[in-house]
Design goal:
The protein has 218 residues and is mainly alpha-helical. Helices cover 54% and strands 7% of the residues. The chain has nine helices and four strands; from the N terminus they run ββαααααβααβαα. Belongs to the MCM family. Its EC number is 3.6.4.12.
Length: 218
């Protein structure tokens, strides 16, 4: 099958087996914590549901983090000449690439019965939590949790097992896959202060006026 994409001037048709790594900025150019994830992401749920993991990456102003990033960027530029002069590693020395190829070609893991049971219970619980959140806020989640997300966790579990050359994805692999899913897609779905506050009409009007006068992040 194929997936049709028409977004940001890009119109193309991709094979459904294509792996896509995408990055995008919010409509305002900066993530606004006062808005819901739906307002910040501003993508159709039909597109969002096709991604296995969705991470929200914020530029948090923190001295230690800014110093590490600046140091890393400067080192990249100062060592650029020496890196270019070095010869590329021989094909036989690229063991990581060969290991990944070996894992893909020789290992085809499947879920164990106990792992499948754990995954089923957690999927039902996640669906119940998202339904409860939607009832409390009166809004549907920005990122719907559907069978596609269940398949995403299955793929992650099998990938983790494949990394260890295991033909069986056990409960540990499922637990790690669920941790990754909760720390990415689920956090993105729950983000936004407004998701946890029921605003009265007067508060909503005051909020609108404040946003017009204050910059994002103020």
């Amino acid at each position: 099958q194929t997936i049709s994409i028409a977004k940001a001037g890009i119109t193309t048709v991709l094979n459904s087996r294509t792996s896509v790594l995408a990055a995008a900025n919010p409509p305002s150019g900066r993530y606004d914590d006062l808005k819901t994830a739906q307002d910040n992401i501003d993508l159709q749920t039909t597109i969002l549901s096709r991604f296995d993991l969705i991470f929200i990456v914020k530029d948090v102003r923190m001295f230690s983090q800014d110093k590490n990033i600046a140091s890393h960027i400067i080192k990249l530029h100062t060592s650029a000449d020496s890196t270019m002069s070095e010869s590329r590693p021989a094909k036989q020395d690229n063991w990581m690439k060969r290991y990944i190829h070996y894992c893909r070609s020789t290992c085809h893991p499947r879920l164990s019965e106990s792992a499948a049971s754990v995954l089923q219970e957690n999927y039902v619980k996640i669906r119940q939590d998202m339904r409860k959140q939607a009832n409390e806020t009166g809004e549907a989640a920005a990122i719907p949790i559907t069978v596609r997300q269940l398949e995403a966790v299955v793929r992650l579990s099998e990938s983790l097992a494949r990394m260890r050359l295991s033909q069986l994805a056990n409960e540990n692999h499922v637990s790690e896959a669920l941790r990754l899913f909760n720390n990415s897609t689920m956090d993105a779905a729950r983000s936004g202060i407004n998701q946890h506050i029921n605003l009265s009409p007067e508060m909503a009007q005051a909020e609108t006026q404040i946003k017009r006068r204050m910059g994002i992040g103020s």
